[in-house]
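Continuing the series of single-chain predictions for the mutant panel. This is the parent chain; the variants come on the following pages.
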Amino acid sequence: MRIHLIPLLTLLLVSFPAGLAQAQFKEKTADPSELELGEATPQRWQIGITVTAGRSSCQGVTGYVPVPVDWPEQEVREVEDDVSSTAKVSYRKVDDAMKLMVVKIPSLAAGKTANALVTFEVTHRSQLPPEGTDHYVIPDKNKLPRTLRMYLSTSPQIESTDRKIREVAKEIGADKEKAWEQVEAVYDWVREKVEYKKGPLKSAVATLKDGFADCEGMTTLFIAICRAKGIPARTVWVEGHCYPEFYLEDAERKGQWFPCQIAGSHSFGGIPETRPIWQKGDSFRLPDNPSERKHYLPERVVVAGARAQPRVQFVRRAVGK
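Parent structure:
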């Protein structure tokens, strides 16, 4: 018998769904000096899984837990682990875009508990917008690598080829000559037309239709419109929140990602965010079912054999130094 466990996750983000990816964890930018970073205090987070067998033993337990990785604005290092002898921990990339902790527990006796907990130190620095923006251009999609072209395509919840999305994309920023001004016009339009309201995840089309959404819905709409205009864009997932990034190139065709706060205070091209980045992207393949894609990649456990479901607790909590 094969049991798939996706319980209520402890300390989960926003409504935390699923997502996809980018070229590499530490990406090259147009000019390192253009990525202006603020100060941030390192934070320590314990991440992992605890599994307790019920009245009977269980076999072949595999857990998948997203963990933070390095980005130009974020540094991550492993500082401590609490891993039971019955558990084995390894790491793997997903879609060349994010990092998963893979926990394997071959066998767990009835009533016994196995821990696979790792503490990471995460330093996420705020980003300042560039001083000059006139030299940025929209990239030529035919010259982009596959790992960037994916951010011009549709994703779960981001219907960038929908007729209504394409219509508004054509109208917004039509009077703007500079690439930066065109993206900023999309930013201003979404913030003006969509009222922020907490609620369930909405797709870009639903957000456009309803005229209200939370940070995820506003982010999906901004990204969908950007992609429809030929501007790569993706989702950034931080603790309890998400926001979009867009990609432009300089005159020498060297590219850079820029963040913006679509829901909340006005921050375009830079962002005062220092919470840990958990994932970037919005179209991830499930590790045990590659044919299925999710808007965000959730924690997940698969149990190959058990008479009764084990108790599973996913852990993501801030801990003291």
